[in-house]
Every structure is written in C-alpha cells, then in structure tokens.
Design a protein that fits this description.
19% of the residues lie in helices and 47% in strands. The chain has 4 helices and 15 strands. An 8-stranded antiparallel beta sheet has the order 3-4-5-15-9-8-7-13. It has a 5-stranded antiparallel beta sheet with strand order 2-1-6-14-10. It has a two-stranded antiparallel ribbon with strand order 11-12. It is globular.
C-alpha cells in the first residue's frame, strides 16, 4: 500500500470513529461501542451495529427489535466531532434536514433517517460546553439542549426518533459525509435520503 493510500485509509477510519451512537429509552441513556448487541430484562431486545465506511461517507446502522407487548419510543442519539478541525462553523440546515460542519479544510454533513423521518432534535455546541453541561436538557424525557449553531471546536449531537409497536422490528441509518464542497455533500445527502430504505436492509 502506498503512503497516500495508507493516509486516505487512516483518514476514512478517523471519519468513522468520529461518528458514534447511543440509545435513549425510558429515561436512561447509554453510548454503545461498535457492534454492540444489548438485551434488556423487560423483554425488549435492542441491538446496535456500526456498519461500514465507503469513500467519504461513514454509516451507522441500527436494528431495534421490540419483543415486548408494549409500544416503545426509543431515541437513537448520534454524536459527531472532528478533532482535527479546530476552527469550524456548525449549524442545522432545515432545507437539507442536516447538520453542516464547515471547516477550513473540509465540509462534513450529518444526517440520518428512520421510517422516512430525518433528524428530530439537535444540539450543536462548543466541545468544552458540551462536555461540561451534557447534551440533555432532560434525561428523564430524552430532550436534548436546543442549540442550532456553534463556532470553533464544535461537536454535534442529533436524534432519530420513532415509535415501535409490540413484536415489531425497525431499522435506522445515520451518516456523516466528508466533502470538499457543500454542493457535493448536499448531492450525496439527497442520494442517501432517497436510498435510505435499501441502505437500512
């Protein structure tokens, strides 16, 4: 492998590691490691998998299987931070239903979908503020702090939310796109939204 190929591979791996996820349900929240599978005593089986990277796009895929006899309302919470970009502007774009991180060297676009629904809540803050105060306004209710814009060393958290009927299984997918331009990132994002059903299989 050439030096350039090795650098690009390491860069893609870094992008993938910069995107992680957790699950909020019934007033509790946990971050998960890659390829974690979690079973709950109440009868629900919740599984999480961080699946793959392709070119400049990193995906996290989730499967949640409700084996209980009650409706559950989980919130999949995704966290992104690019430690290499110390001066960026990050904001939520309603038109794209996505979060954009615009840095001096790169553009990152965050998105996701579950059952045709995109980002539900988002919290964009300076890295220090997020770690100091946490991302939840109310952990009990699963409410993120509302913060649509930040500058400097920024980090973003967003949620994908749905209702799952008893004995029902759903799949969701979240992604981060790294691109040289906003236009290219938006094109890839639109393609991912249109292909979300096939990607989540």
């Amino acid at each position: 492998m050439s030096t350039l190929s090795a650098y690009k591979t390491a860069e893609r791996e870094g992008y993938r590691r910069n995107l992680r996820a957790g699950l909020w349900m019934d007033g509790s929240f946990d971050w998960y490691r890659e390829e974690d599978n979690v079973s709950e005593n109440q009868g629900e089986i919740r599984s999480f998998s961080q699946s793959y990277s392709k070119k400049e796009i990193s995906f996290i895929k989730f499967t949640i299987n409700n084996r209980s006899n009650a409706i559950i309302t989980p919130k999949i919470v995704c966290h992104y931070e690019n430690a290499q970009e110390r001066q960026a502007v990050a904001f939520y774009s309603p038109h794209e239903q996505a979060i954009l991180h615009v840095g001096q060297q790169s553009i990152a676009l965050l998105g996701g979908v579950v059952r045709g629904r995109g980002i539900s809540q988002y919290c964009i803050q300076g890295k220090g503020s997020l770690y100091q105060h946490g991302c939840f306004k109310s952990l009990k209710e699963g409410l993120l702090l509302y913060s649509p814009l930040a500058r400097g060393e920024v980090t973003s958290i967003f949620s994908l939310e749905t209702e799952i009927m008893p004995q029902e299984c759903i799949e969701a997918i979240a992604w981060v796109i790294h691109s040289a331009t906003k236009e290219e990132a938006k094109i890839l994002h639109t393609e991912l939204l249109s292909q979300a059903d096939s990607l989540a299989i």
